[in-house]
Write a structure and sequence with these properties.
Keywords: Kinase, Transferase. The protein is of the alpha/beta class. It has a five-stranded parallel sheet with strand order 2-3-1-4-5, with helices on both faces. Helix 5 crosses helix 6. The longest helix is centred in the middle third of the chain and has 21 residues.
Length: 173
């Protein structure tokens, strides 16, 4: 089984992946780690500022890792904001049957009410070197865009509205 965890920055993707690893013992791949490995090793000329170019670049690699895991009957959690909303186009039906997708989305009300907590908990799993770019306005815009894209592509999403309560029970295979 493959679990894809998408969402905007600061929505708790890495934290959820870590919880699933601890519960189900499925390894996870952080697309941020893949990105930084490729950038730091100079395997790409892209930089962290090239988000619109990083998504197709990273997805091209990640989708092949996913196919390999499925072909080898291995479980894998993939988390990151670089999963494109049209990700299903990358797989035939026999692969799609093995993939579970979740997009974490915070409502504008939740962001407005809890923004200081969102910022404070940004380092629960990983130390963010600099997230000064992450403002209330950025959070609202990114999450609203993700909601619209999930609805457009008919993708499942987990809406974080009044309280942050994300629990996923994976199907047994």
């Amino acid at each position: 089984m493959i679990v894809l965890i998408a969402g905007a920055s600061h929505t708790g993707k890495t934290n959820l992946a870590q919880k699933l690893l601890e519960t189900y013992h499925y390894p996870y791949l952080s697309m941020d780690h893949l990105k930084m490995g490729l950038i730091r090793s100079h395997e790409t000329n892209l930089t962290v500022e090239n988000d619109e170019l990083l998504t197709p670049y990273l997805w091209n690699i990640t989708k092949e890792i996913i196919k390999t895991a499925i072909e080898n009957d291995q479980h894998l959690i993939v988390e990151g904001c670089y999963i494109p909303f049209d990700w299903k186009k990358s797989f035939s039906s026999e692969y799609l049957d093995k993939i579970h997708y979740y997009c974490l989305i915070m409502t504008e009300d939740y962001i407005n009410t809890h923004f200081s907590i969102i910022k404070e908990t940004a380092n629960i799993i990983e130390d963010r070197l600099d997230d000064s770019y992450f403002t209330r306005e950025v959070a609202i815009k990114e999450n609203q865009n993700n909601l619209e894209q999930c609805q457009k592509e008919n993708l499942p999403y987990l809406l974080i509205d009044e309280r942050y309560e994300i629990e996923i029970e994976l199907p047994q295979e």
